[in-house]
From TrEMBL:
It catalyses: UDP-alpha-D-glucose = UDP-alpha-D-galactose. Pathway: Carbohydrate metabolism; galactose metabolism. Keywords: Carbohydrate metabolism, Isomerase, NAD. Its EC number is 5.1.3.2. This is UDP-glucose 4-epimerase. It comes from Planomonospora corallina. One of its GO terms (molecular function) is UDP-glucose 4-epimerase activity. InterPro entries: Epimerase_deHydtase, NAD(P)-bd_dom_sf, UDP_G4E. The gene is galE. The keyword Phosphoprotein does not apply.
Length: 319
């Protein structure tokens, strides 16, 4: 297929773009490089530096869109909600309009566990209530809602993939390594590994008084290579007039303390941890049931172990 990958110069989008190229698709990456890197665009993909609000020319002749481009810092979204509504909802609506004008009827969208907010039960299934606790999650949920409406009204074929906590790195067949490298890094694993690299003194543990076994937040970590494969399955499964939603996690929860311990084992570094205040808006436990995507699309995590996720992220870091 001829595919447009928005945000394909970013962490997850670049891995998906690489896998799409490897699978023989004709890939164009559209990215404004606000948080991405031009050298993350895989060889073999065309690169257009532009915003998703200017996607019309790049959409000509496309069979589908994989839409990763977004603002995705929870804390920033609380401080600047307008920015998140404008980029994540406004930007996506502009993209959907341009797709319609160009006759592009297929989209796979990066949704998030943050659409659920504080869950009532664990693991979370797709039919559980969606009550986001921050504007980031709310803006992503609004896009999910818009996709349902566009599927019903215009026959769009849409899939929303609700990622839980993504980690690890991907080594493509040509040996190129695709990894997480954000100028502003909020995610746990890269922050912990930065201590082992000597780039930070210690890692902050945000809260030890949660109602969890060791008092720290529990999350469901998924390997970026496994996550990326789900996009290729979703792309094939897209059906006109339907909007499908799938959770993507490994189904097992790990606490912040457990992740720090695994990072110590993998790196052999003491990694000092400093206990700090809770981070506002963090639910205690977020664990996915990915049964629906396993059942309907045959997806299965090949590297579900946190140790492998951490080891791959660690091996990919330049020293
Ligand atoms: N990393 C995670 O754990 C996680 C979890 C759930 C959902 N997500 C979602 O997955 C997607 C990718 O996340 P990531 O971690 O790879 O982020 P990232 O910041 O590495 O990638 C996003 C890319 O989009 C580009 N971009 C941003 N706004 C743009 C715009 N208006 N026009 C064109 N390009 C734009 C950026 O330059 C960047 O290359 C995002 O939509 C994010 O919300 C990520
Ligand atoms: O330096 C850090 C960083 C994180 N944490 C804790 O580690 C856990 C994981 O935090 P991340 O920032 O790595 O990820 P989140 O759980 O906040 O992920 C949420 O935000 C992401 C976007 O950044 C995705 O959308 C994801 O689906 C959504 O659940 C949280 O309990 C957090 O408080 C720390 O203790 N110290």
């Amino acid at each position: 297929m001829k595919l447009l990958v928005t945000g394909g110069a970013g962490y997850i989008g670049s891995v998906v773009a690489a896998q799409l190229v490897e699978a023989g698709h004709e890939v164009t990456v559209l990215d404004d490089l606000s948080t991405g890197h031009a050298d993350a665009v895989p060889p073999g993909a065309r690169f257009v530096q532009a915003s998703i609000t200017e996607a019309a020319p790049a959409l000509e002749g496309m069979d589908g869109v994989l839409h990763f481009a977004a603002k995705s810092l929870v804390g920033e979204s609380v401080a600047k909600p307008g920015l998140y509504w404008e980029h994540n909802l406004g930007g996506t609506l502009a993209l959907l309009d341009a797709m319609r004008a160009a006759g592009v009827g297929r989209i796979v969208f990066s949704s998030t566990a943050a659409t659920y907010g504080e869950p009532e039960r664990s693991p979370i299934v797709e039919t559980d209530p969606t009550r986001p606790t921050n504007p980031y999650g709310a803006s992503k949920l609004a896009v999910d809602t818009a996709l349902s409406a566009f599927a019903g009204l215009y026959g769009l074929a849409a899939v929303s993939l609700r990622y839980f906590n993504v980690g690890g790195a991907y080594t493509a067949g040509d040996g190129r390594v695709y990894r997480e490298r954000h100028a502003v890094e909020t995610h746990l694993i890269p922050n912990v590994l930065a201590v082992a690299l000597g780039q930070r003194e210690s890692v902050n543990v945000f809260g030890t008084d949660y109602p969890t076994p060791d008092g720290t937040c529990v999350r469901d970590y998924i390997h970026v290579a496994d996550l990326a494969r789900a996009h290729l399955l979703a792309l094939d499964a897209c059906a006109p007039g339907e909007h499908a939603v799938y959770n993507l996690g490994s189904g097992t929860g790990f606490s912040v303390q457990e992740v720090v311990s695994v990072c110590r084992e993998v790196t052999g570094h003491a990694i000092p941890a400093v206990v700090g205040e809770r981070r506002p808006g963090d639910p205690a436990v977020l664990v996915a049931s990915s049964e629906k995507i396993q059942r309907e699309l045959g997806w299965k995590a090949e590297r579900p172990e946190v140790r492998d996720i951490v080891a791959d992220a660690w091996a990919a870091l330049p020293r």
